[in-house]
Structure formats: structure tokens, C-alpha cells
Design brief:
Elements lengths: L7 H9 L4 E7 L7 H19 L3 H11 L9 E8 L2 E9 L7 E5 L5 H8 L4 E7 L2 E7 L8 E6 L14 H31 L3 E6 L1 H10 L2 H5 L1 E3 L12 H31 L5 E3 L1 H9 L3 E6 L8 E5 L5 E2 L10 E6 H11 L3 E4 L11 E5 L11
Parallel strand pairs: 5-8, 8-9, 11-15
Antiparallel strand pairs: 1-2, 1-4, 2-3, 5-6, 6-7, 10-16, 11-16, 12-13, 12-14
Helix pairs in contact: 2-3, 5-6
């Protein structure tokens, strides 16, 4: 069964399409002693949960077929799946540790929180493995484990090993070989620089032959060097381990996610201090701002919101605390506050940052940076 994926725009369109959704967010890692038995028990639990939630049999069968597929990426790894009317609408393989517990559900308001949280833990990145004869370039987005670009450059291969001929010819051959290396790495750098401009990765992880890496670094553009991190491992030879490469990749991506969160918090702090009220703090104030389509960046602590619930509507204003604020829209369901808040943010094209309430003003569960300053609560005050 073909996997489906969706960017933020498509998620908004999906939410507007209506209907009832069957959903699963599940850890599908296989690095345990008895993967088949674990998978069987895990799926039986999830299947029972879907049936108990009211999911139709055709949805359950479609999700089961997806979960029968291997994820195609090393553990840890999770899957997020949405089905409607027996069709898989969205299926994503999400590398890395789970961001929250397994989730099962069925109803008119899909819980996209685990999907969005897991995506936010990822960033677009590029891995380049440089050799003396060229190299391999892989570009990854945030939509599953497969590289969106996987290409190899092959340069000249003659005289790549510096000859040890004696006499007058030795320096000439050494120089000739060095020039071939430089030419190969220049061609590789041209490809890397072009892909950086097109795909805008936030990280360029470079590994490979030590001398090839040195030569390649000298040919990279300023944009490529700005996102560059070098790891001293070479995975291209047969049998070579990529453990060090993967470990550094995970550490670098975690740093990027933390930097993004810190920048959002800095913006919130600046806006909150303005007299123009460029920020809102607290559930009530943020709900009101989302109703107005006013939120540029939503910051929330899922755990801190606890058992609080909000109403989700089928049209604008999308959410509210009480039915009287529906403005004629139909109430779809009363859902967990994070589900309603993230849904409204997606529908109004707001950015979403998951953080800790201890970092938010007044240790609030939720806050927002606004697109334009809020007016006074009462005209004229």
C-alpha cells in the first residue's frame, strides 16, 4: 500500500474536508528480543482500541495493512496513520523516539498533536559523504525516512592513489593526483551548493575521507558553510558503521529544535513587553486570538494543559471555550485543549512550538505571538 504524506498546508485542507477519522500513532520500533511477538500484541491492542472507539471495520483493515509494512528505517521509529471511509488518507513514518504515548482514536476531530510534535523534533538536513573520487549526497525533509534527493557524483579515478615513484617524476605525479582530488571535490561542492539553495536544509553533515573532506570544505559556498557540521567517520566502504554519523546527526537535530524553541520564546518575551500587546498569554486570551486568525506563533505545553477541554467547530472561529462563541458554526466535538489549539493553529496558518510551561510568561500552559497588536479589551480604554 502506498504511503501518503502531507505538509502543513495539506493538513489544513485535510481538516477542512470533514468526516470521521480513524487514527493511530504507534511506536513500531523492532529492536527488541522478539519483534514478531511484540508487533502482534501491539497491533491487537491497537485494533481493539480502534474498535472500542467506534472505528469502522474497513478503516481498521486499512490501518492494519499499513502496519504490516516494514517502516524502512532503523529504530526508534513511529507511525502516524489517518484513515477515512476505508482509505488511508495520511501515513507517515517518523524516525526518532516517540514524543508521546501511543494514540488511538475515531471521530470528527483527528488528533494531529503527536504528528506535529514529532515533525517539530525533525529538521530538513543533508548528509554528504566525500571520497577522493566524488561522493554521495542525501537530502532529507521532515516527511518520513526516505531521502528526497539521493545522488552520487563520480569524478576522475585515474591516479587517485598517490604513486610512490622515485626520482624526478614523484613530485609531478603527487601534484597531478592532488589536482584530480581537487577537481572531484569541486564538482561535488557545486552539487552540494546547488541543493542547499533549492532545499534549504538546516544542517549539512559532512563525513568521509579526511583529505577529501578538507578539499570539499574549501569549495563550499557561504550558505553551505553556515549549516556545516563535520563528523570524523567514513561510511562509504563496505562494512563501515554509521553509528557515529547517526549519533551526531541526532545531537545536531536536537540542538536545532532547541534553538527554534528559544527563538520563539525570545520573540514572545519581546512582544509581551511591548505596550502594543503583541503577545497573549493564557488559554482564554490565546483562544480569542486564534478565533481572530491573529496568531503568528502558538507556544504550548501539552502536559501542562492537563485535562482541559475546548470545543472544536466545523468552520470559523474553529474553537471556543463555550458554545455561545460558535458564531453559527457547528460543534464537532469537545476535545482535549492541545488538540483544539493545534487544529486551530493549522487552520489559520500559525506556526506551532512545543515548549515547557516553566519557560512561558507567568508559567502559563499556552501563549501566542501575534501577527498584529491586540486592541484594548474595551474600546477607548
Amino acid at each position: 500500500m502506498a504511503a501518503h504524506s502531507a505538509d502543513e498546508t495539506t493538513l489544513s485542507e485535510l481538516l477542512r474536508s470533514g468526516g470521521n477519522w480513524s487514527q493511530v500513532y504507534l511506536d513500531v520500533s523492532l529492536d527488541v528480543e522478539d519483534p514478531p511477538q511484540r508487533s502482534h500484541l501491539q497491533w491487537r491492542t491497537m485494533r481493539d482500541g480502534l474498535v472500542d472507539a467506534g472505528a469502522p471495520g474497513e478503516d481498521v483493515a486499512a490501518i492494519e495493512a499499513v502496519l504490516a509494512e516494514t517502516p524502512g528505517v532503523g529504530s526508534p521509529v513511529s507511525r502516524y496513520i489517518l484513515a477515512k471511509n476505508g482509505e488511508i488518507v495520511l501515513s507517515e513514518v517518523l524516525p526518532g523516539p516517540q514524543v508521546q504515548d501511543n494514540t488511538i482514536g475515531y471521530g470528527p476531530v483527528p488528533d494531529l498533536v503527536p504528528l506535529v510534535r514529532h515533525r517539530r523534533a525533525l529538521s530538513p538536513y543533508m548528509i554528504v559523504e566525500a571520497g577522493r573520487d566524488g561522493g554521495r549526497i542525501r537530502v532529507y525533509g521532515t516527511r518520513g525516512p526516505d531521502a528526497v534527493v539521493d545522488t552520487t557524483t563520480v569524478g576522475r579515478g585515474d591516479s587517485l592513489n598517490k604513486v610512490q615513484a622515485g626520482g624526478w617524476s614523484n613530485p609531478r605525479y603527487q601534484h597531478h593526483t592532488e589536482e584530480i582530488w581537487k577537481q572531484n571535490e569541486a564538482e561535488l561542492a557545486d552539487e552540494v551548493n546547488a541543493l542547499v539553495l533549492v532545499h534549504r536544509p538546516r544542517l549539512l553533515l559532512l563525513a568521509g575521507d579526511v583529505r577529501a573532506v578538507q578539499l570539499l570544505e574549501g569549495e563550499l559556498s557561504a550558505a553551505s558553510r553556515d549549516i556545516l557540521s563535520t563528523v570524523s567517520t567514513y561510511t562509504r566502504p563496505a562494512g563501515a558503521s554509521d553509528h557515529e554519523l547517526r549519533s551526531q546527526l541526532a545531537a545536531e537535530l536536537a540542538t536545532l529544535a532547541d534553538d527554534e524553541r528559544r527563538r520563539a520564546l525570545d520573540r514572545l518575551g519581546v512582544q509581551e513587553g511591548d505596550e502594543g500587546s503583541g503577545a497573549q498569554v493564557g488559554v482564554g486570551a490565546v483562544v480569542h486570538a486564534l478565533q481572530q486568525g491573529q496568531v503568528d506563533t502558538l507556544l504550548l505545553d501539552v502536559q501542562a494543559l492537563g485535562d482541559r477541554h475546548l470545543l472544536a467547530f466545523d468552520a470559523e472561529p474553529w474553537l471556543a471555550s463555550v458554545p455561545e462563541e460558535s458564531l453559527g458554526a457547528t460543534i464537532l466535538d469537545k476535545v482535549a485543549a492541545p488538540v483544539a489549539l493545534v487544529r486551530a493553529a493549522l487552520l489559520t496558518d500559525a506556526d506551532i512550538v512545543f515548549t515547557d510551561a516553566r519557560d512561558l510568561p507567568e508559567k502559563s500552559e499556552v501563549a501566542a505571538v501575534l501577527r498584529w497588536p491586540a486592541g484594548p479589551p474595551v474600546p477607548g480604554t
